[in-house]
From TrEMBL:
GO biological process: methylation; pantothenate biosynthetic process
Chief location bin: cytoplasm
HAMAP family: PanB
InterPro entries: Pantoate_hydroxy_MeTrfase, Pyrv/PenolPyrv_kinase-like_dom, Pyrv_kinase-like_dom_sf
Cofactor note: Binds 1 Mg(2+) ion per subunit.
Keywords linked to the UniProt accession: Cytoplasm, Magnesium, Metal-binding, Methyltransferase, Pantothenate biosynthesis, Transferase
Gene (name only): panB
Positions contributing to Mg(2+) binding: 40, 79, 110
Residues annotated as the enzyme's active site: 177
Name used for this protein in its record: 3-methyl-2-oxobutanoate hydroxymethyltransferase
Gene source species: Helicobacter brantae
Family: Belongs to the PanB family.
Requisite cofactors: Mg(2+)
Length: 259
């Protein structure tokens, strides 16, 4: 799957995406979804942190390399971590590192009008970029929490302006997170590039979820926009308890499982 193939799906077929952080899950999800995001959400679900700000560029590249080893067909997109693209020089250095050290097909970064110059510089160096506007987790602490965007006319108009500016800058797709669904629909209709929704309604060109949310492995909190397709934690705990019981009862290993 290439960025050109992703773009060709706009208006034709919904785009599907999921996160992954290692080769094992990358391989499981490969060719089941159109693209796999190595998201800085791994700070939450993999690192146990309270936000996405704790993860660094070295860790993002490490996990992206791991995912790429398990993925043969789906496009892999790597998140630029907080602080890794605060100016043009740092952004270029870290985006180029992503391409040199991993097999990712693109990088993703958060921000609208304030990132247009940086986005252009990265794309001019031959690195594909996915945009991300709306609720931006890297801005949550400075904004006093996770705020839904597009509730007011002013907020909606700014989102539209940012989406058009990012498209003009050359991003191949834009994630719309936590955007009122009416506004996300308007943005999707305005743009010639795909929109990928997360909590932004059904009319985006595609959808993405964090794998541990979608499959029930993260259970401390369930966002409104998450649909659970598996009770993963319960299933895994049941399995581990069976294993422990078999060991304690000397039912494992049996003769066929011994050398």
């Amino acid at each position: 799957m290439t960025i050109t193939q992703i773009q060709a799906k706009k208006g034709v077929e919904k785009i599907t995406a999921i996160t992954a952080y290692d080769a094992l899950f990358g391989k499981i999800f490969d060719n089941e979804v159109d693209f796999i995001l190595v998201g800085d959400s791994l700070s939450h679900s993999f690192g146990g942190n309270s936000d996405t700000l704790s993860i660094g560029i070295d860790e993002m590249i490490y996990h992206t390399k791991a995912v790429c080893k398990g993925v043969k067909e789906s496009l892999v997109v790597g998140d630029m971590s907080f602080g890794s693209y605060c100016n043009e020089s740092e952004a270029l250095k870290n985006a180029i590192r992503f391409y040199k050290e991993t097999n990712a097909g693109a990088i993703k970064l958060e921000g609208g009008l304030n990132r247009v110059g940086i986005v252009k510089s990265i794309i001019n160096e031959g690195v594909a970029v996915m945009g991300h506007i709306g609720l931006m987790p890297q801005f949550a602490r400075s904004e006093g929490g996770y705020k839904i965007k597009g509730k007011s006319e002013e907020s909606a108009n700014r989102l539209k302006e940012e989406a058009l500016a990012l498209q003009e800058a050359g991003v191949f797709a834009i994630v719309l997170e936590g955007v009122k669904h009416e506004v996300a629909t308007e943005i999707t209709q305005m743009l010639s590039i795909p929109t990928i929704g997360i909590g932004s309604g059904v009319h985006c060109d595609g959808q993405i979820l964090v794998w541990s949310d979608a499959f029930g492995f993260f259970t401390e909190f369930k966002p409104k926009f998450v649909r659970r397709y598996l009770e993963g934690e319960a299933l895994l705990k049941g399995a581990i308890r069976e294993y422990v019981k078999d060991v304690k009862n000397q039912n494992f290993p049996n003769l066929d499982e011994s050398y």
